[in-house]
Amino acid sequence: MLEAAPLLTVEGLAKHYQLDGGHTLKAVDGVDLHIGRGETLGLVGESGCGKSTVGKTILRLVEPSRGSVQLDGVEITGLSYAALRQQRRNMQVIFQDPYASLNPKMKAGAIVAEPFINYGLFAPRERTERVADLFARVGLRPDQMDRYPHEFSGGQRQRLGIARALALEPKLVIGDEPVSALDVSVQAQVINLMVRLQEELGLSYLFIAHDLAVVRHISDRIAVMYLGRIVEMAGTEALFETPSHPYTRMLLASVPSADARRGDRRRTVLRGEPPSPLAPPPGCPFHTRCPDAMERCRIELPKPRQMAPGHMAACHLIP
Ligand code: ADP
Ligand code: MG
Q1: What is the whole-number distance in angstroms between the Cα of residue 54 and the centre of ligand 1?
Q2: The CATH number of domain 8-314, selected from 2.40.30.10, 3.50.50.60, 3.40.50.300, 1.10.10.10
């Protein structure tokens, strides 16, 4: 049986920043991924590894240096601004800090209605009805439409950000650390809301986080990034049960266990710091922190290899 084409296909995506003094910073350096309809891909890795840049280049909030991004069969990278604007309705973003992305001088209802106005959609009365529906969908009360962002809690503000992201009925939502700034109990509520909205609306998610524990519940598959590249990608269960890349194992070891969450605060720390993307190590970029690095790892960049169907990793140590 032929599988339906993925909603999003990203190939060879790169973003290289040319800095003063002739340096090149390879924020993203050749990323391939796809996301199916109604599917969630988790994207994890330490701060600075290029996760946000992947999200922003997919949306063309920053222009990719090279590579292809196809959404529902449409190549996004070559589009004119006018055509891109129409495609943007299909892909929306939720940021870590909704406060920074919500205009503090606008009432909550107007914030959620703004996409309708930007795209000239619906008469004023229908806009109001649709905003009320969106409020209900994300668990906010209609009377809160008249409040200002500062009158909301962090979790409620993120619900507001989600309502606005859903206004144009997108197919893909990119969540860039959407729960990272929230308390753990509120994180779970917002993630559960996103799972429910996905089931109701058939959304696809690219869910970015620096913590594997956060993406576990929501992700069908997980991609692990290190210094601008994906080093392992697998179904969520396979990644947790049979992690292949030493970096994935290091990230897993730093996830607090159920016991640790109940009170024992001990946590295995990540060994060392990631190298600067301005001076990436030769060979395998992880070799400077890898407990098992061999001579070959210092010289040769490992190519992605398939461990099992749907499970890839880029590591010389894998037999
Ligand atoms: P993450 O989201 O994983 O923390 P980012 O995608 O934000 O990582 O950043 C990846 C790398 O690109 C970092 O080294 C960051 O400093 C660099 N970077 C991001 N934006 C710019 C920019 N506009 N100019 C130069 N370097 C940038
Ligand atoms: Mg980021």
Answers
A1: 10
A2: 3.40.50.300
